[in-house]
UniProtKB/TrEMBL annotation:
Keyword Signal on entry: yes
Protein name: Multiheme c-type cytochrome
UniProt organism field: Halodesulfovibrio aestuarii
Assigned keywords, A-Z: Signal
Basic and acidic residues: compositionally biased ranges: 450-459
Domain of life: Bacteria
Length: 459
């Protein structure tokens, strides 16, 4: 009898240990629960905005947020003491003529929704975005841009131009958002909660559509024009041509991370290559990934060597990521040969255009024939700037994204013309020992040259 008991206990203990060992192979079960019930305060928001701003209500009603029960207060609700609380909005809770305008529905709200707010539901995306050049573009801009650093434009020219895409430093004034800094959804906006950027730069409110962010027209809001014509380059390329011909067949509403080349789309958009998951590559909101050259810099360098904002990555690793994306549609020889051509274009720009022009500019400054106290007030400074900032960028970006007209006619052809004019005038100043002509009335200058304290600290 005792022997039987011992045997039974041994079998039980063996089974117990086997079960415990097997349990170690199972990860902890995560229970993700979403309460789709809308609280009375959320209903109050909806009923009020349905009447006062029907466009906002309709946009939200068509969103995935609405179908998941996510309402205004889930994104806009502020905590007591937050710097961006809307004082004016509190007045609506004591107006008898407003639907549900009663104190019992009061919730403090903030107008700007920030990546920190979005991170409550989208933590990975917010973290990736925070490391990108998009989120940090105000810092980059102030480190390299002579327009800002030398006050060669006005505050309003910056607000309506540069800051519209790059972002403002949000401030409060008399209990409201300062109109000098708002409205703004710039991709690098500095928010009052300390976060950087605005998710609605690409996922516009209040539908916050994945479909919209996948379309090149969204990127083309900012990536266009003489200095960074990515949307024009895309439209000229074979990728853009196929997109225009077949975009009506694209499945832009595929789930995040599941948007598949050859299944959901025939040729890539900007997001396909720079952000979306494909092949072995996961989706990323860090657009600095997958880049092997810093094409917007005066001298083309590797992203990790870009002093204003080093990428913190290794370019060969990032290039292989992009190659993996390319190989979802192209053969290995095509991809390798494309990068050979791109690298050659970079080398030719650096050695034949930028470096000689920079050397000449430095010589003119050293001999006092150009004045360093201001930029853009002497013709050669403008010629030099546009050589790299306009023609040089177009040549490099056109080569990188396979747009022949931008690589040549808008790019290297114009580089030659700009370079020759620059060198002709520079040699004339050197040979005659003559100081450059200065524009006596450079218009509408006087922008503040103080770097934003929120980013750079007190100067």
């Amino acid at each position: 009898m005792k022997r039987s008991v011992i045997v039974i206990l041994a079998i039980a203990m063996t089974a117990l240990f086997a079960t415990a060992a097997a349990a170690q192979n199972f990860p902890k079960i995560r229970e993700l629960r979403m309460d789709r019930a809308i609280p009375p305060q959320g209903v109050a928001c909806i009923e009020c905005h349905k009447q006062e701003t029907p466009g906002i209500f309709s946009d939200w009603a068509m969103s995935r947020h609405a179908s998941a029960g996510i309402t205004c207060i889930d994104c806009h609700q502020a905590q007591p003491g937050d710097k961006d609380i809307s004082i004016d909005h509190e007045k609506y809770y004591s107006k008898a003529d407003m639907p549900m305008g009663e104190k019992q529905y009061f919730v403090p709200v903030a107008s700007p929704v920030t990546p920190k707010d979005c991170s409550r539901c989208h933590p990975d995306e917010a973290k990736q975005y925070s490391k990108s050049k998009h989120a940090n573009t105000i810092e980059v801009m102030w480190k390299i841009d002579p327009w800002l650093n030398q006050g060669m434009n006005s505050e309003n020219e910056r607000k309506t131009g540069c800051y519209y895409c790059h972002g403002t430093v949000l401030k409060m004034k008399e209990g409201k958002l300062d109109p000098a800094t708002w409205p703004n959804v710039g991709v690098g906006r500095v928010n009052l909660d300390g976060s950087l950027g605005s998710c609605t730069s690409c996922h516009t409110r209040h539908r916050f559509s994945v479909m919209e962010a996948r379309k090149p027209e969204t990127c083309g809001q900012c990536h266009l024009g003489p200095d960074h014509p990515q949307i024009e380059i895309f439209n000229e390329s074979k990728h853009g041509d196929i997109y225009q011909a077949f975009k009506h067949e694209y499945n832009f509403n595929s789930a995040p991370g599941a948007w598949t080349p050859g299944v959901d789309y025939r040729a890539p958009t900007c997001a396909s290559c720079h952000m979306s998951g494909s092949g072995k590559q996961p989706t990323t909101h860090d657009v600095t990934e997958r880049l092997s050259w810093e094409l917007q810099a005066p001298l083309t360098i590797r992203p990790q060597d870009f002093k204003p904002f080093p990428s913190g990555t290794e370019w060969k690793v990032e290039r292989n990521k992009m190659k993996d994306i390319c190989k979802q549609c192209h053969g290995t020889a095509w991809v390798e040969d494309h990068y050979t051509q791109m690298d050659t274009a970079v080398e030719e720009y650096n050695n034949n255009y930028f470096k000689p022009a920079k050397k000449m500019l430095d010589e003119l400054y050293a001999k006092g024939l150009l004045d360093k106290s201001k930029f853009f007030d002497e013709p050669l400074e403008v010629e030099y700037y546009e050589l790299w900032h306009h023609e040089g960028r177009r040549a490099r970006m056109g080569s990188a994204m396979m747009a022949p007209d931008y690589a040549w006619w808008h790019g290297f052809y114009e580089c030659k013309n700009r370079y020759n004019k620059f060198m002709e005038e520079a040699r004339h100043l050197l040979e005659t020992n003559t100081k450059s002509y200065k524009y006596p009335d450079f218009p509408n200058t006087g922008g503040d040259t103080t770097k934003p304290e929120e980013i750079f600290g007190k100067q």
